[in-house]
Design a protein that fits this description.
Four copies of one chain form a homotetramer.
Chain A (H helix, E strand, L loop, with lengths): L2 E11 L1 H4 L6 H7 L26 E6 L5 E6 L7 H9 L1 E9 L15 E3 L2 E9 L2 H10 L14 H11 L6 H19 L5 E8 L3 E8 L11 E3 L4 E5 L2 E4 L5 E4 L12 E3 L4 E6 L5 E4 L3
Antiparallel strand pairs in A: 1-4, 1-12, 2-3, 2-4, 5-6, 6-7, 7-8, 8-14, 9-12, 9-13, 10-11, 14-15
Helix pairs in contact in A: 4-5, 4-6, 5-6
Keywords (chains A, B, C, D): Glutamine amidotransferase
InterPro entries (chains A, B, C, D): EgtC-like (IPR026869), Gamma-glu_amide_hydrolase (IPR052373), GATase_2_dom (IPR017932), Ntn_hydrolases_N (IPR029055)
Organism (chains A, B, C, D): Microbacterium koreense
């Protein structure tokens, strides 16, 4: 129940995609348009039950100085954050992940804010593991005991991340993420959890983006929305103006960064798909078959 | 651009009106229904341009132990606050003000959170002084120099409060608030400010509520919504259940605390009105004629 | 590496022991005197290596309205908190726990702030489980699976609390706490942890205080300081003035609440001791023999 | 009652002076050594009344991308901040100011955190205007009315900054700062304020540092400590290791960044002095004669 974006391409100041587009991630923190929550009661009053608010924190992680990963997370809303605006104007990167959080009923803490960073990987998620309390212990026990003490928050995403790390994220990210999804589904089955696992996830080592979109086949609900950019890299920044991105820019987003977007520029990533974005080549998608 | 409630009556735990009703102040922090913002761009996507989000802080002030005023304010959203829920279950009062803030472009700080408390008075506001930057200095210079150093925030509401204190809020609250509104309107005229002063305000000394609703006559925009409760004091708390308030309960609210409210229970307070609520008697309204 | 106090007796506003004494808990947040940290490098410059600063958060839990437990926690320092002062002046209780945190290298989060509250019990701790990362998983696996999802933070204290709950804190608190200490010591032994488990702990159901002081026998370091009040219940509040507490007041504290205290008023609780404080009777101490 | 550092020289990651030295600014947030506060009661228990704690916030401002000024400020202590460590490792600059705040009795707010940034200038301060409440209004009225609405906090430093901007900081910083000091002293005299104005201040436009050290001649107290680096640019970073700074590095600091420093490397700046540091030349000091 969040919104995120991931960028891969020539370095640019992160404000170019986080702040300046007319439906930037900051705009999505206050007025998201495609966050459809059919079963979430507070969404009932909105058109198509699209919930607008992602006010439970913000985070960004990036490939930075000397290839090291930078990270900045806050628990307060993105929309009025002066620090966020200043940092977004100053930080340049060729690979970054950014996230605004909606965590109804969850724990608001820096340790629960995305993106998570560990072992040279960044990780962010939109969605939820339904009935997580019932399977949290099972899943956590599967985490490598050496990694276990590095789990600092209490949410579902971080457990998914550490499972993926345990399953070899660094060696074969597609296999590791697939196995993680399979493990969650097995736990749901073993504990009789009816609520779905719904997820759009991005993992990155600073050189490539590995993204997936998933909804439990038996869960009765669609997966969260996910798009990637194609074609001419321009972004509407308001008042009819556009901004030019580097020609090699690749973006993966929960919803397009523009209020009036076209399918020529943004293509939906189908459910049950895992995709790999590398520099200078077209993304490769395959079926996510856990 | 906020939502508030004020209560006067027999003491009750403040959660009974802040948390439990099905459209409580907490609910209004995330999904307000009557916050019509015709000129605020982010409101454009919502039905009737009713903006849902009041996520820039929460505060409550109350008549407490030995008649002293208590105060609690936070800059983070009300909707997920554990502290707020715990405190609301524990604090009992027969007179309290509570507020959720929306401050687009403003400064997020505890010092700017409502209700303000000074000199035995509590004060909260929904609305704005249009073009405040142009008249802030004029208005602030009118504040009693002895009171001046007690202004701790940087917003319009606190200046209104200290003007009212300067003009004798403790001696004659209706006259002081009226003079404050007149002073703001004079400043607007002197500096040629076109944007309106729109306000619903509540001031209280712990024994009575003095409330007003105002919009600059030349401003072209209606004042923010304001209601008071009448008749049988029950509140819908969800699932068809109701909660009984004390028979002497009086509520003044930005919008009714119930999703499906009736005009038998909630009466709108007209624009250009100032009202005084005292214990055990019907409220007295008069024309606000600055 | 914290300071705490616990109170049992006739109800009083909690400011009487948290704020007003001349070495109150707030004063201890900035200038503690007895927090001896022989192995903590930043303590080297202070007299007797007594570290003064407990600035990583504050919390209070109390027996409140209708016997329900209240809780308020913040991650910011106690010393300059306006909310803390206001709440302390308003909240009255006959049984409360309050804590200022020092968490060098730890995670600053509301979820890690003491006192913890669950299942009708409050729990706070000063000290640390040395080498916690090495045994955290073992200990956590011993927590009742039904309780497991209620662990929200990532620190050692919360695991101790949930172990005690698992071991029957509600039925026999002395036995449950003793078994918890034994479990930690066994884990240390099994994993070859040399660093000591050092703890002063208070658990309370709102009617009694159960306190313990412990240091691993093989750890080579003394346990943290712990005192309880005896005799005439007066507290120095500065400028030669004293404040009278109720005659039945019982206090247990990390360090006395007065700058110039006497052993007639404050008695040290020996290491390896567990004590039970009930209303109206003298505390009962026994040897903590895990 | 704070600690600050300013850097001018070839670009380096700011962690090299903020985090890595063995008495870095982060270390000074928890265990400052030269913050002598002869009249501050809580300092009484420390050796030479040197108060160790600067836990009321942290900030950094820097000359950044394209010469624009970056800014990051937080109200929570520097010592345990993960964001601070991450950002310090990523941000490179050839001119930056950083500050840890101690604000006993003051308002903890991002708007009060140093460095302040406005109109292309950065500004930070250690010290205080004694009796500020008595002269705040006089001083604030002297601020250019066009600048007035940009004052967002409520502290003395920001007023000093806006006075300096009003007096032509951009045109002649030495003259503007001198006039600001004179204005404060005149206000003290006019209102009969006995408490001293004590200050070490740094203003910078990203190309040079203008620093001053001042104590009211009639105030009876010395000015806060201030040092600048000279000679070989190495910093002790613990365990006998040293770090090499760029040969053109110039540092001005409240106290040396090393636990065991020598007067060959750090020279005290005398009271009543104003100094200008420019790239590649020796600093120029003159008498501050307001």
């Amino acid at each position: 129940m969040c919104r995120w974006i991931s960028y891969l391409g020539s370095p640019l100041p992160i404000e170019d995609v986080i702040v300046r587009p007319d439906h930037s991630l900051i705009d999505q923190s206050l007025t998201a348009r495609d966050l459809f929550l059919p079963t979430y009661a507070p969404a009932a009053q909105f058109r198509d039950r699209a919930f607008p608010t992602n006010g439970d924190g913000f985070g960004v992680a990036w490939s930075g100085r000397g290839g090291a990963l930078g990270q900045y997370r806050q628990t307060t809303p993105a929309w009025d954050s002066q620090n966020l605006r200043h940092l977004a104007a100053q930080i340049e990167s060729g690979c970054f992940l950014a996230h605004v959080r909606a965590a109804p009923g969850g724990t608001i803490a820096e340790q629960n804010a995305h993106p998570f960073v560990h072992g040279g990987w960044m990780f962010q998620h939109n969605g939820e593991i339904g009935g997580f309390d019932a399977i949290k212990r099972d899943l956590t026990l599967d985490v490598d005991p050496d990694l276990y003490p590095h789990i600092l928050g209490n949410g579902d995403t971080e457990v998914c991340f550490f499972l993926a790390l345990t399953y070899g994220l660094a060696d074969d990210p597609v296999a590791a993420l697939t196995r993680m999804v399979a493990r969650v589904e097995r736990a749901r089955a073993e504990r009789g959890v009816a609520a779905a696992f719904r997820a759009t996830i991005c993992a990155s080592d600073g050189d490539r983006l590995v993204v997936l979109r998933w909804a439990s086949p038996d869960g009765g609900a669609a997966g969260p929305s996910l798009f990637h950019s194609i074609g001419p890299e321009t972004l509407h920044i308001g008042e009819g103006a556009v901004e030019q991105l580097p020609p090699d820019a690749q973006l993966v987003v929960s919803e397009p960064l523009e209020l009036h977007w076209s399918r020529r520029h943004w293509e939906e990533i189908p459910e049950g798909t895992i995709g790999v974005f590398e520099r200078g080549v077209a993304p490769v998608f395959s079926r996510l078959a856990p």
